[in-house]
């Protein structure tokens, strides 16, 4: 057993909905703890999956995900050889640490941020340097990031918008930051929630790829595309780096059904737009609600909202008893709630309001 693994706690995955229902004796349960798309999945995906030819079951899938790759290249302008697909973005996160980190290397992450960046670094025996977000706004402390770069810093993780804070860093701030990062460190911009950003008209940082060889952009089909079950994510990076990842990834990491679903979902940008618009409307109402009630929160540009509550665990229990599962345990007294459908948001806010008045 690798020494680095003995001390680790694994990522705690979501329990199946039915199991949670049984455990708490619930008839109705809405999961708002995993940032899944509350509007489901594009109906075109259902057609595509049902029509998928079962006769291909005995054949290995297309290892290169050619059709999906083509589509993404056309939409993003990123050349094909710069794209690497993974079984969910999770696999890409793992591959990055496996490829670039050796024992005693360092990575920089925000505190709090997506926990898997640190998990995979620790498996490789690397050191995780945690830079707290700014207490009042939740923004990245990018100056502190720069101060903490050493010759051993190999990976710098920017989750944008950040999970769990929901806070978005502008393209200008990210560019200014990257211009000061030495070429020995790779900056990874995780854009899992980028489609939900409305504060900037073209929020993605894809354009940095052609100017900086030490920048990569990561995307997933699990969130706004509503395909969490199919496990499709990808990274766009310099051709030479992409080749390293291609070399060590499993050859058939994306099965044909997953590819079929992703192709279909990607073509239905109307569903994406609908989800983004609904989310933005509900997000605004959430922020208004929290503001009015004097609850501390960070300005969100994602499909979830992160707020501080004096009795967070009790509130989470109360919400669960009422059929709403939210994310706790990220920071003491903070909860992360996926922005749901209007009726669910209204119901949750009612429960919070009555809890405040108890
Ligand atoms: C959900 C999430 C992922 C992982 O997505 P999958 O494609 O489902 O593996 C990666 N990064 C962030 C920030 C996420 O929130």
The overall pLDDT average reads 96
If helices are DSSP runs of H or I spanning 4 or more residues, what is the number of helices? Answer: 13
Number of domains: 2
Bound ions, cofactors and other small molecules, one mention each: pyridoxal-5'-phosphate
Low-confidence stretches: none
Order of helices and strands: HHEHHEHEHEHEHEEEHHHEHEEH
Q: Quick one: biggest sheet?
A: 7 strands, mixed
User: Residue share in helices?
Assistant: 25-40%
Cofactor: pyridoxal 5'-phosphate
Domain Aminotransferase class I/classII large: 28-345
Keywords: Amino-acid biosynthesis, Aminotransferase, Histidine biosynthesis, Pyridoxal phosphate, Transferase
Family: Belongs to the class-II pyridoxal-phosphate-dependent aminotransferase family. Histidinol-phosphate aminotransferase subfamily.
What can you tell me about this protein's structure?
This protein has 358 residues and is α/β, with parallel strands linked by helices. It folds into two domains: 126 residues, Aspartate Aminotransferase, domain 1; 224 residues, Aspartate Aminotransferase, domain 2, CATH 3.40.640. 39% of the residues lie in helices and 16% in strands. The chain is built from 13 helices and eleven strands. Strands 2-8-7-6-5-3-4 form a seven-stranded mixed β-sheet, with helices on both faces. Strands 1-10 form a two-stranded parallel sheet. α6 links the parallel β3 and β4. The longest helix is centred in the last third of the chain and has 24 residues. The mean pLDDT is 96. It binds pyridoxal-5'-phosphate (PLP).
